[in-house]
Amino acid sequence: MPKSVRWFALIVIVLAVFGPMIPQLMWSFATRWFFPNLLPPQWSLESWEYIITPSSRVAEGFMNSLKIAIIVSLLSILVGLPASRALALHNFKGKAVIEWLLMVPIIVPGIVSTMGIHLVFIRLGLTNTFLGVSLVHLIPCIPYMVLVMSSVFANYGTELEDTARTLGANPLQVFWHVTLPGILPGLMVATMFTFLISWGQYVTTLLIGGGTIITLPMVLFPFLQGINFSAAAAISLVFVAPAILVLVLTSRQLGEESSVMGGFGRL
Amino acid sequence: MTVVTLNNLTRRFDNVIAVNNLNLEVNDGELVAFLGPSGCGKTTTLRMITGLLLPSDGDVLFDGVSILTVPTEKRGAVMVFQKHLLFPTMSVAQNVGFGLKMQGLPQKEINMRVSEMLELIRLPGFETRRPHELSGGQQQRIALARALIVRPKVLLLDEPLANLDANLRLEMRELIRSLQHELEITSIFVTHDQEEAVMLADRIALMFDGELQQFAEPNAFYERPSTAQVANFFRNANLLKGKRVGNQVETALGTLTIDTDRVVQPDGEVLLTVRPEEINLIPDSAENIIYGEVLTQVYMGTYSQMQLEVDGNQWLVHGPANFDAQVGNKIPLQLPEPRIWLLPLERKLK
After folding, report:
1. Which residue is closest to A163 within chain B, CA to CA?
2. Are B244 and B342 spatial neighbours (Cβ–Cβ below 8 Å)?
3. Residue A258 within any structural domain of the chain
4. What is the CATH number of the domain that holds A96?
5. Closest B-chain CA to A161
6. What is the DSSP letter of A201?
7. Band of the pLDDT at A259, cuts 50, 70, 90?
8. For residues A145 and B298, what is the distance between their CA atoms, to the nearest angstrom?
9. In A36-109, alpha helices (H)
């Protein structure tokens, strides 16, 4: 691609992603901004001051969202890494069924499955708990983890690991010195997906958390329905910040490692 | 150092037999080639020696002791694969020193031995290079160094020359030969290229469809192939059906005299063969002459190659470069008595 075209593409992308946030940013510093004013008549820090007060529960929601997203990411790795390796490198009975089942959460709306899960979780005493919410978040997360990682594993193959074995490395050493460094870029991207999917969950958190587990989307929604656009805009920006941060941190892997994104061809 | 023995080694994948009842012994310090078309079970055999794959049946012994229960990392059988040679996340020094690091040697000693090894493979000072900065030939040499540095009991090479161009092949072949001689490591390499096997190996184990056909020195495959299939693999398809009676073979094209000291095939139905380059196109007597019809003639520079029809079989004959066979003619072929070899008759052949 010529340089000018690349620059043009970059500008378009930046505008498309960040452009819609400009009015939000203005709203978050505005008070009483109505038609036909092009700019807010009055600027203030009112909304930002409001959302850092404990009574707004923004900080609490932020921390809960963060905790849950981290737990979900770790659990996704724990469950998804062995599964994706098995699917990528081994042939076994029922493999096609498992691959299909893994796609189901992407196809079936979360609200449908979560209502069923809700009943089970009530019996297990998992409703209104951190663990319950984390577990239900796993359902939409694991498919992405497995999709990305199985293509990473398939690409990486086993020859390097086999070489390491014959050179005297035990299975644990092979994983630590050979497998992990090799799959790390892919793992970072997959973890980013699971983190962001968990971060954005609303319906599942609402049903399983039952209003006890307050995450950031739970704090944000009432404001969107109300009339305090200014506060809603400020919370939205807080909500989107980690997503942008994670995206920037992993953008290199997204762009360079074609193998990382290969799994999406299968979707 | 190490004698490798394979006893009735068998490997099945579901219903397919990849390696069938393989028996052979590789001597201490010997360089053996597993030769055969792809899918003949040679790489499967290597993997069973390393322990990366368990045999369905049979045994692998190092110095007379079964090693089936020894895990891969403790066998001392190092394998160099065809592709994915170096660990991409490590520098050259880390790659070469990998085995020593796994043994828990102090970094200082590792560094020293890595430098020595890089010197030995004629890539001194390459420690800090990354794998992607190296050429294919350099990567191959580093992979070899990484294997040799742990002083393996057995060195296993999977198609070591397959991904190299002609010049590098020659260089790499010499390097493997000289290092293997110098370090006296029992080595087995897998190849599908018969010339490569002949030039590099002390002995060749030829495999078809998971079965050992012949295990012998390279010249035996030219002079004393065990079956028509083996002869064919070594580019000799000149076959003539006959019946051996004492020192004579009766064929549809006349009776030929053979050297009874050389042939081992007993009296009865046989296939007679003579290599393309050993047939006389200008007979020096009237003995052992058969006639063949010239189908094509190709000028090869230092010789000319003719395709002939001999009693329904296609024969290949090499003659002098300036020989004029005239396509369509029937020409005399003298089969020198000491060069005639007899093979067992296989039913599928005419």
Report:
1. B79
2. yes
3. no
4. 1.10.3720.10
5. B87
6. -
7. very low
8. 61
9. 46-51, 58-89, 95-107
Q: What is the DSSP letter of B328?
A: T
Contact present, B204 and B218 (Cβ < 8 Å): yes
B98/A164 Cβ within 8 A: yes
Domain of residue A156 covers: 69-213
Strand (E) positions, chain A? none
Q: How far apart are CA B272 and CA B41, in angstroms?
A: 30
Contacts of B113 (CB under 8 A, 6+ apart): B97, B100, B149
Strand, helix or coil for residue B244:
strand
Cis peptide before A222 (omega within 30 of 0): no
User: What total number of domains does chain A contain?
Assistant: 1
Q: For residue A162, which residues of chain B lie inside 8 Å, CB to CB?
A: 47, 50, 52, 79, 81
- B231 is written with which tokens? 């002869």
User: Structure tokens of B240?
Assistant: 């003539």
- Asked if the Cβ–Cβ distance from B87 to A178 is below 8 Å, we say yes
More confident residue, A251 or B140: B140
Which of helix, strand or coil describes residue B140?
A: helix
Q: What's the DSSP call for residue B27?
A: P
Q: For residues B45 and B25, what is the distance between their CA atoms, to the nearest angstrom?
A: 13
CA dist., res. A52 & res. A167, Å (int): 57
Pairing relation of β-strands B186-191 and B31-35?
parallel
d(CA A7, CA A21): 21
Task: Please enumerate in sequence order all residues whose Cβ is within 8 A of that of B257, keeping only pairs 6 or more positions apart, or say none.
Answer: B247, B248, B287, B288, B337
Domain contains A235: no
Euclidean distance between CA atoms A251 and A253, whole angstroms: 5
Torsion of CA B19, B25, B26, B27, to 10 degrees: 180
Q: What is the ipTM of this complex?
A: 0.82
In a domain, A166, yes or no: yes
Give φ, ψ of B324 to 5 degrees.
-115, 105
pLDDT at B87: 93
What strands, in cross-sheet order, belong to the sheet with B65-66? Answer: B16-26, B4-13, B57-62, B65-66
Residue whose pair of structure tokens reads 């294997």 in the numeric block: B147
Please check whether residue B57 touches A, CB under 8 A.
Answer: no
The amino acid that residue B45 corresponds to is T
CA distance B120 to B101: 20
B72 touches chain A (CB under 8 A): yes
Q: Is the pLDDT of residue B64 over 80?
A: yes
Which pair of structure tokens corresponds to residue B112? 């020293």
A178 contacts on B by Cβ (under 8 Å): 87
| pLDDT at residue A252 in the model | 64
Cα separation, B292 vs B315, in Å, equals 8
Looking at the domain assignment, is residue A242 inside a domain? no
Residue A108 scores a pLDDT above 70: yes
pTM, two decimal places = 0.81
